[in-house]
Amino acid sequence: MKTTIACALCVLVLQAAAASAATENGRYAIRGAGLIDCQTYLDEQEKQSSAYLMMGGWIDGYITGVNQYAEDTYDATSFESTELFAELIRNHCKKHPADRLFPVMNSIVAQRWPHRVTAESPLIGVRLGDKSVQMYKETLERVQQRLADKGYYELPASGKFDQPTISALAAFQKTLENYEASGFPDQATLWALFADGD
Question: Where do runs of H (alpha helix) occur along 29-182?
C-alpha cells in the first residue's frame, strides 16, 4: 500500500481533525511510533520489547484521538482490542515491511469505520467462567442481531449477555475450525462473526 493512499484514508476518517488541526493544504506532522516502519514493528513484537509495549500505547492514543475529533463517533472500535489491532498490523507488516505504522493504522481504522460506535453506549460486563470482558450494549445487540441473521439466535436483540446469547455464540463457534465452542464473545469469535459484513 502506498503511503499517499493511506494518508488519503486518514483524511477521510479524521475529517474534523484535518479541518481544524492540519495546515491549509491538509499536511500535519506525524510523531512517535507512527513513524516506525513495519519491519521494526515486527522485530520489536517478536522480542516483546518495551518499545513494542509503547507501540501498544500509541495504538490506544491513536484511537482516542480519532474518537475525540471524528464526527459521529463515540468509539472507532466497537469490540476490537489493542491486541487485535496489534495482530492486524502484524499481518499487514509481514507483507509490507517498509510501510510506516501510521498509514497502516489509518487503513485498518478506515476498513473498520462502518462498524464504529457512533453514540455513547453503556458498558456491559460479560462473564463466563473465568473469562470476562466489557462490551458496549450496542455491540452486544449487534452480536445478537448478527447471530439472528445467521440463524443462531431467535429472540429480539436485548443487549444482555444471557443464556440464549451464550448458546447462540457456542453454536456459531462450532462452525469455526479448531475452535472451542465456549459461548464467550472473544476477539476471534467476534472477528469471524463480522468478517463478511455487518
Answer: 38-47, 50-69, 82-95, 101-112, 137-149, 163-173
Are the beta carbons of 51 and 10 closer than 8 angstroms?
no
Report which residue type is found at 184. F
Whole-structure pTM value? 0.81
What residue type is 37 in one-letter code?
Answer: D
pLDDT tens-digit map of 101-139 = 999 999 999 999 999 999 999 999 999 999 999 999 999
Burial class (CB in 10 A: 0-12, 13-18, 19+), 113: middle
The CATH number given to 123-193 is 1.10.101
In the chain, domain spans: 3-115, 123-193
